[in-house]
Amino acid sequence: MSTWDSDTHPPHPAMGAGAWLRVVGRGLPLAVLVFGCLAVLLLVRLIERPLYGARRPVTPYITQFVCRSAFVLLGMGYRVEGEVMSGPGAVVANHSSWLDIFALNARKRIYFVSKAEVAKWPGIGWLARATGTVFIQRDRRTASAQVAVFQDRLALGHKLLFFPEGTSTDGQRVLPFKPTLFAAFFAPGLRETLSIQPVSVVYRGPTGADARFYGWWGDMDFGPHLLSTLAARRQGSVTVTYHAPVRVADFGDRKALASTLESRVREGLIRSLQP
After folding, report:
1. How confident is the model at residue 7 (pLDDT cuts 50, 70, 90)?
2. Contact between 41 and 63 (Cβ < 8 Å)
3. Residue 219 forms part of a structural domain
4. 9 in a structural domain
């Protein structure tokens, strides 16, 4: 659940017969897609793991296929701007919704970095583990071990994705990036070689709907939000903008790095939201 909140939530229309038909018409194929491909991924992983270990040469393509297809089934527009960074590195993005997982995986093979609690969430935790999410403890005593995990995964060519806001919002703003997250990037062996690509994820609600329609924050429950998304008569769109990567070695400290990345992501959001 998001720790950010506002005074109001976007209104959602009552669920009539037509809305429930749209829920079934979109939700059933989406469930078949996600859980069917998850079964395929787990079977492939039985072969992939002993042969390649943490280096996943096949299964990320299954994840990409699912995420791209999800927007087709939802009837939701999906657009990409900018060039995806080549080579290993980290990615940071603003966080608005559970839909971010689909939006960011659809174009780029990435591995999310998430708080350890997510691994225990029913359903979502299982999906996260299956797709190679890196779980971290918010404890300084484990900082050196986490840096070692980051180094190992980056050495395999993985792109690790972080949400530096630490929570999700209504999609109309970018919260301050938490500089603590970036301390690991300044560790010897990472600072000299690591590049980070800032990414802006921007949602536009369905025509006539609240601009915050796809945002998921505060005490909003996942189930009702999913239902309202599936039930929309007309869907909106999401634009994912990849900005130029920055080199960690070009910054003196984590605060300067966090501030620059935050500014790039915010500028991309503001620019995309302009009429």
Report:
1. confident
2. yes
3. yes
4. no
